[in-house]
């Protein structure tokens, strides 16, 4: 049966993998290194990372899967921060006429399929007899129940799909990896390139720095256990409606 509590960060040992070393990812790597000196922190991504990884490329994921058991085990903490909201011509849709297939496919490839395929790639490096955190950044706009403004079709739908995929993963791992905890995290609006075009509409007190966001997220994860696996939580620990 899953243990009732997990150790505090200071007592964790093994390895950790932060995927998507952008603003929040780099802040998480630094803060986790400070809080958990027993963890060896590795990063994975397309640039500025220890391990090259493209979540949209099957060969890249296969390469990670091949090296993970030997190089990353025991992998105790995995946090995926990779995400796509806008990129050049790709912008959040304001109306139905702006929806196009390519944007939908790109958003789903990174925001929905990527986290699940990451879990598949690193699963063999996860210990069966120790607590494990697998977390991925979602977004409140991915909540179907909380959608009151509309728009942002591709991003909203892809994050909602990620939520369902990782909730399903949590149920499977309860049977096969009963000490693993899967968590979907809403980091709040954070001052990163992803949110930059929309930051002017956010009150300053609710626009987090990457360092502040990282601290909040690690606080939330520290309170999580396998018994709560599959939760969708905001930066303050409150549940977000599905």
TrEMBL record:
Source taxon at top rank: Bacteria
Gene3D superfamilies registered for this protein in UniProt: NAD(P)-binding Rossmann-like Domain
Pfam families: adh_short (PF00106)
InterPro entries noted in UniProt: Fungal_SecMetab_SDRs, KR_dom, NAD(P)-bd_dom_sf, SDR_fam
Domain Ketoreductase: 14-190
PANTHER family per the UniProt record, alphabetical: NAD(P)-BINDING ROSSMANN-FOLD SUPERFAMILY PROTEIN, SHORT-CHAIN DEHYDROGENASE/REDUCTASE
Name this protein carries in UniProt: SDR family NAD(P)-dependent oxidoreductase
Source lineage: Bacteria, Bacillati, Cyanobacteriota, Cyanophyceae, Synechococcales
């Amino acid at each position: 049966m899953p243990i009732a509590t997990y150790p505090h960060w200071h007592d964790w040992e093994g390895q950790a993998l932060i995927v998507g070393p952008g603003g929040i990812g780099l802040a998480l790597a630094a803060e986790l290194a400070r809080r958990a000196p027993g963890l060896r922190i590795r990063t994975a991504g397309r640039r500025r990372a220890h391990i090259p990884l493209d979540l949209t490329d099957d060969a890249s994921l296969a390469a990670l899967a091949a090296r993970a058991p030997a190089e990353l085990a025991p992998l105790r903490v995995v946090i995926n921060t990779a995400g796509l909201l806008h990129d050049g011509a790709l912008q959040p849709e304001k109306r139905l006429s702006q929806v196009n297939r390519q944007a939908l496919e790109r958003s789903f490839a990174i925001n929905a399929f990527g986290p699940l395929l990451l879990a598949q790639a690193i699963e063999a490096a996860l210990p069966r007899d120790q607590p494990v955190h697998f977390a991925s950044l979602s977004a409140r706009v991915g909540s179907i129940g909380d959608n009151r403004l509309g728009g942002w079709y591709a991003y909203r739908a892809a994050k909602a799909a990620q939520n369902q995929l990782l909730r399903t993963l949590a149920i499977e791992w309860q049977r096969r990896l009963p000490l693993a905890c899967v968590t979907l995290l809403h980091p709040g609006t954070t001052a990163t390139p992803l949110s930059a075009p929309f930051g002017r509409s956010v009150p300053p007190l609710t626009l987090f720095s990457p360092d502040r966001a990282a601290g909040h997220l690690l606080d939330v994860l520290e309170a999580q256990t396998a018994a709560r696996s599959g939760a969708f939580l905001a930066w303050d620990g409150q549940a977000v409606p599905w």
